[in-house]
Amino acid sequence: MNNDQVLLALSSAGLTRVTAYEPMTRHTSWRVGGPADFFGVAETENAVFGALKVAREAGLPWLVLGGGYNVLVSDAGIDGIVIANRVRGLTIEETLGEPQIHCGAGVFFAKVAQETARRGFTGMEWGIAIPGTVGGGVVNNAGAHWGDVAHALISATVADGDGLSRTMTSDDLAYHYRQSALKERSATRSRFVVTGCRFHLERDSPQASLARVDELRAHRLRTQPVKEPSAGSTFKNPPGNHAGALIESGGLKGYRLGGAQIAPMHANFILNAGGATAGDILGLMRLVQERVKDLFGVDLEPEVQFVGRWPDEALRSVLGIAA
Ligand SMILES: Cc1cc2nc3c(=O)[nH]c(=O)nc-3n(C[C@H](O)[C@H](O)[C@H](O)COP(=O)(O)OP(=O)(O)OC[C@H]3O[C@@H](n4cnc5c(N)ncnc54)[C@H](O)[C@@H]3O)c2cc1C
User: Fold this and answer.
1) Which residue from 264, 262, 257, 265 is spatially nearest to 300, judged by alpha carbons?
2) pTM exceeding the 0.90 threshold for the entire prediction
3) Residue 321's pLDDT is what?
4) Could you count the other beta carbons within 10 Å of the beta carbon of residue 162?
5) Residue 44: exposed, middle, or buried by beta-carbon count in 10 A (0-12, 13-18, 19+)?
6) Cα angle vertex 166, ends 98, 159, to 5°?
């Protein structure tokens, strides 16, 4: 298939906003990253399967993105087809023994939190603090305050590149802190796509649940630079410690490298303070790791995922020998 045929096939498969050489600056919260060879938005499960079929027939790699809130896309861009997962649908079911929410993997966590609270359920309020889709959260074991995907998830529908779907439970996904059986620390292609998920709920009053959502939202606004371009926590908290506290103790709060800056408000956030490249952010991450290692003997492991055409040596420098 030539480029025009790939674009036509993606549109025919039901993807929208299909383009070639789409800058990832438009689709990532850090606002960095080079172009994807091909890009399209999948709002239905069928569109996802259609995109996978096009990738197979064209012999192209494919990569799924949710909201792009936890990825550092290389300045050199991404090979093959980027499928922006916006699979819709949100239903609450009360006939299965316990209330549960079933939603498309492209639904945003904030919507899940808001909708379940508004309809008088508790269990997902913490989702208000997670920018991004539930599909991305299932991969990352996203969590905040008292909740995380590992504890809330009943099951996820996961397809492979051949379009074969299976249902995976929280146990199947082998969750631990910001980690799952589906998560890659770096990827030029995806191997699986989450298309839908079910979460546990319990009955509560809308007033009580909405009050918790509002409280968590206000707490975030007070404590994190949520309105500036970042990917949230850059590093995982090392056992018994806080990455932000170590970086701050290393004197790096506010430190700038190119357009990348350690957030003055929260040292585990790296901001695109204006004109940053992915290379600037990677360089600053490396500098942070070296300073924290030198001063405190602690290895900081990235929480964000590296996506696209990264040179092996660049990844090795921040991910260690496993890159
Ligand atoms: C201001 C801010 C605050 C944050 N606070 C938190 C927090 O408190 N707790 C927390 O856990 N995270 C936090 N994050 C990080 C982010 O919100 C989560 O990691 C979230 O789960 C990312 O979802 P996403 O849809 O944007 O995933 P993306 O960033 O688009 O993707 C992440 C990875 O998952 C893969 N992926 C995405 N969707 C799918 C899918 N459907 N199927 C298969 N693979 C997929 C991608 O290929 C990529 O490897 C924060 C981020 C920001 C910007």
Assistant:
1) 262
2) yes
3) 44
4) 10
5) middle
6) 120
Query: What pLDDT score does 322 carry?
Result: 43
| Two tokens, residue 10 | 């993606």
In whole angstroms, give the CA distance from residue 185 to residue 180.
Answer: 11
Structure confidence at residue 299 (pLDDT)? 95
Cα distance between residue 214 and residue 231, in whole Å: 22
For 5, residues 6+ apart whose C-beta sits below 8 A from its C-beta are: 58
Pocket of ligand 1 (CB under 6 A): 29, 63-71, 85, 105, 129-133, 135-137, 139-140, 142-144, 184, 187, 190, 192-194, 224, 226, 230-232, 305, 307
pLDDT in tens, 167-198: 999 999 999 999 999 988 878 889 999 999 99
Amino acid in position 227: K
Which member of 31, 178, 198, 212 is catalytic? 178
Long-range contacts of 274-277 (CB under 8 A, 24+ apart): 276/30, 276/31, 276/32, 277/32, 277/75
Q: How many CB atoms lie within 10 A of CB 248?
A: 16
Q: Which of 182, 159, 158 is nearest to 168 (CA)?
A: 158
The verdict on residue 289 lying in a domain is yes
Give the CATH number, domain containing residue 136: 3.30.465.10
The helix, strand and coil proportions of the chain, stated in percent and rounded to the nearest 5, come to: 35, 30, 40
Q: Assess whether 184 carries a catalytic annotation.
A: no
CATH label of the domain that carries residue 74: 3.30.43.10
Backbone phi, psi, residue 198, to 5°: -120, 135
Q: Are residues 131 and 187 in the same domain?
A: yes
Please determine, for residue 96, whether its predicted confidence score (pLDDT) is greater than 80: no
* Residue closest to 279 by CA, chosen among 35, 34, 65, 82: 34
